[in-house]
Amino acid sequence: MAETSERPYVLCHMTTSVDGRIKVRRWTTIDADSHYEVVHKRLGGDAWMCGRITMQGYADSAEPLTSAPAEEPVSREDHVARTDAPGYAVALDARGAMDWGARNDIEGDHVIVLTTGQASDDRLRRLKAGGQSYIIAGERAVDFALALAKLKRLFGIERLLVEGGGRINGSMLKAGLVDELSLLLAPAVDGVIGTPALFDFEGGEADSMGSRRRLTRTACEPFDDGTVWLRYRIEPVG
């Protein structure tokens, strides 16, 4: 596992059904989101990171730029718009597809777009004009280790909550970049084959994390509605 001195301490914070699925919107027998934000705040992160599906809603509600950015050469270097925000919202967008317009914060948390070399010059110009920060980590696929190092070095982020889809969570777990799991286990069963799970990545039986990561329970807190909040320390085996 990467040294946390070189990157933020990473907590994966998620809600799942008892069978490990994460499509909470279709569990109509409970309010699966009722504890999520409260626990999110209790975890005390400097920043939180989500993927495009979650972040698209925030981008779609943005006010448009008042004028088009100038057609000038763009440096392919990282852009830091501010470092004094009370918190940071990291939007994973490998292709640079989301248009944030003039929106550069989410409830006071400054928007940092995490992208790759696939992002177009026009998208980078628009992000800079809109007041968002962006970091480039990887040419086509996101280099998560590099991204985390940049988040700490450029923005001073020490504690990051990863609240992604199964593929984001799985990629980071496989790379040894998740230090702790905060799991809200909801009293619901999904059961549909192919539904995204807490951690997902491509591979065969030999690629399983079951023999490579040790989870040690550090806390267990039940709620009245049947949800259980579990916390696990995650460490490499051997």
TrEMBL record:
Recorded GO molecular functions are: 5-amino-6-(5-phosphoribosylamino)uracil reductase activity
Pfam families found in the cross-reference section: RibD_C (PF01872)
Q: Electron transport among the record's keywords?
A: no
Q: Transmembrane region positions? A: none
Residues making up the signal peptide according to the UniProt record: none
Q: What residue stretches are annotated with the Bacterial bifunctional deaminase-reductase C-terminal domain?
A: 8-227
Q: Which PANTHER family match?
A: 2,5-DIAMINO-6-RIBOSYLAMINO-4(3H)-PYRIMIDINONE 5'-PHOSPHATE REDUCTASE, DIHYDROFOLATE REDUCTASE FAMILY PROTEIN (AFU_ORTHOLOGUE AFUA_8G06820)
Q: Which GO terms describe its biological process?
A: riboflavin biosynthetic process
Q: Which organism is it from?
A: Methylorubrum thiocyanatum
Q: What are the UniProt keywords, alphabetically? A: NADP, Oxidoreductase
**Please, which domain of life does this record's source organism belong to?**
Bacteria
Q: What is this protein called?
A: Riboflavin biosynthesis pyrimidine reductase
Pathway assigned in UniProt: Cofactor biosynthesis; riboflavin biosynthesis
